[in-house]
Input
Amino acid sequence: MSGGTQRRRHDSARSRELLLTAAGELFAERGFDRTTIRDIGERAGVDPALIARYFGSKTLLYVAALEAERGDVPPADLLDPERMREIFERADRRGPVPLAQVAVQRLSDPAAQDAARAALHTRLVDPLRDRFVREGLDRPQLRAEIMVAAVVGVMLGRHSGAFDELTRADPDALVPLLRGALTTED
Amino acid sequence: MSGGTQRRRHDSARSRELLLTAAGELFAERGFDRTTIRDIGERAGVDPALIARYFGSKTLLYVAALEAERGDVPPADLLDPERMREIFERADRRGPVPLAQVAVQRLSDPAAQDAARAALHTRLVDPLRDRFVREGLDRPQLRAEIMVAAVVGVMLGRHSGAFDELTRADPDALVPLLRGALTTED
DNA sequence: CCATGTTGTCATCAGGCAATGTCTTCGCAT
DNA sequence: ATGCGAAGACATTGCCTGATGACAACATGG
Output
């Protein structure tokens, strides 16, 4: 049976990876503050003390998780309905992107706050602002920040337990409504 | 009519009031979970142990703070630009309404979560839904929930430290942009 | 002016947190 | 095979949290 080692008890690369994955999921689901290193260790099936060994601290693990998903979340143009749909669907599967939380609430840890803030701008705000600039709109930066904040509000709202229909709504139904939601003829 | 009570060391009504005010401010600024009863006591200049005496627990104090500001935040029609401006200005002065946080993040305490959720619907979601119903729009409930979530996102985003221009922007400049933000001609 | 109930202060408890250091167990190079 | 460095398990430290109960200061009705 199994020529390979079914029991690999010492495998730092694997442990590191398990911790990073579990951390990414939990940070996405609950945010930085409400995720404990014990939770992460439990989900990963790895001793939480190893977080200190491999990443230095909970904060640095957060930063690492942020960078690890860089590939997952390419700089997204929120004005593209298809992209927006992808974002919502991803949030349904894996929880909201960790950095979404920072758009809406200060983190307790300044280093984590800075890292998340930077990621938020790089991946969401800046691409949008650049598009507005190209379109020649006034106040492109402000427009981009408003839109990101609004979309993040909706994305988090879906998982906050405070909205029933929003939680149940299909992303396909959501996107068109969201795009028109804030405009009405008086 | 006590002419000169300059020193009132025993005044339960006053202590109660001070605690309630401080709690309302802090819950609004930081949310339920990240506000401690020691913080509240410090800001109020009152011993935190009195929270237990007058309100029973931190959770019940939160519920009391929610109800105390009912007058402050009349059911607001977010489609009225003037109302929207008022909401943003109030948030600048006293911090976002405490119940805003629940739109975006689960609270650790189920009782607090339920109370905030109920208040959120009564004051923001339901009036908006009713208006959409009157206008004969489809999916009125979903539309209302989306819009509340989006506005809350922007309101919290202003104070999260993650957006510079959004933080500095004047409410007067904000409202029109927000109303049109999610719509663009492709 | 005293007795009694009210209000405020303080020390402390139990639980949960991140982080650290120690000790054991393992894998690999020799 | 074996010895040593790497990897993991575990207990502990120090801190912060909400809550509680004992005690002191006060006000007031008799």
